[in-house]
Design brief:
Elements lengths: L2 H15 L11 E4 L4 H16 L4 E4 L1 H5 L8 E3 L7 H5 L4 E4 L9 H4 L3 E3 L1 H5 L6 H12 L22 E8 L11 H13 L3 E4 L25 H9 L1 E7 L2 H8 L4 E4 L3 H7 L6 E4 L8 H11 L2 H14 L9
Parallel strand pairs: 1-2, 1-4, 2-3, 4-5, 6-7, 6-8, 8-9, 9-10
Helix pairs in contact: 2-7, 2-10, 8-13
Length: about 325
Amino acid sequence: MNARLETRMLARQHASVEPRLHKSNLGRMAFSMSNAIGDSLISMIIVTNLLKNGINVTVYGNPAYALRHWFPGVAIHRLPVEEDSADTFAAYDTVLQMQWNQPLVHLLDAHPRVRTLHDIEFGEHPGCMAERFADFCRKELELDGVDLDNGIVAPTDLLHRRHARRVVIHPEASTDDKRWPASRFVKLARLLQRRGYEPHFVIAPHERERWKDVEMFDVPVPHFNDLNALAAWVYESGYFIGNDSGVGHLASNLDIPTVSLFRRRGVSARWRPVWGAVEVILPWQWVPTSKLKERFWKETLTCSRVLSAFVRMTRRYPAPSHASR
């Protein structure tokens, strides 16, 4: 039995014994939130709808904690280490976690009333992940006034899209199969420079090893001390282009016009960014069979198509009047 199938079977076994939740029996809640940026932002949809319905919920998660100043009125703490999880969550009646074994592997053993969202993520449900989480709030929890707002609010000292010509390019992703070729991103950046834009690559310290042999010439690669600093910088940028990644969800969540590159239509249907102006770009669909589409998507998703999508985005969402030129 392969590892992926075994994981799904174990998830179904856990789901069969998980509590059925309703707003009347939630009590005091905690949310053990993912270590992934995108998952955390999407999960905040549930937190925001719970709070709107008067449910007491506290968030534990590292990306969420880094962005805690962007979520006023929400109690957010760092994720506890595994051996402290039982003590941390003992004061709560119900604990939510996106998957049964992530980010805390043994949470189901550490607390008697854990509800995971694993089936919502991997089950046959309509809509993208953000819409699925909203449906969970609406249908299972029976919350009132459910929407896709996750409660993010920018600090008052920032000016939205202040740097209109600055284009955030995120050429990285969690796995190699999500990464459009580095050479294409560099070519795209140079094409944008010729059009008068200021592309910047966002590459985390642990990702830079993959870029040491890539000739980027004069394309800036800024450093950020933490996720909060990155969010502030993205918020004041004009546009975003990138792979399927958490930074793409962040740009979307901050209402930065976003061009998002996906390798497959099914993946984009589930994981596309949901907020603001987003254009999803897919490889050519004429390639026969899903196996060949997966193998050759990087070749069939051309630089010219991504650039064309960006140009369309700039026409639909030009720079605001307050932006620097």
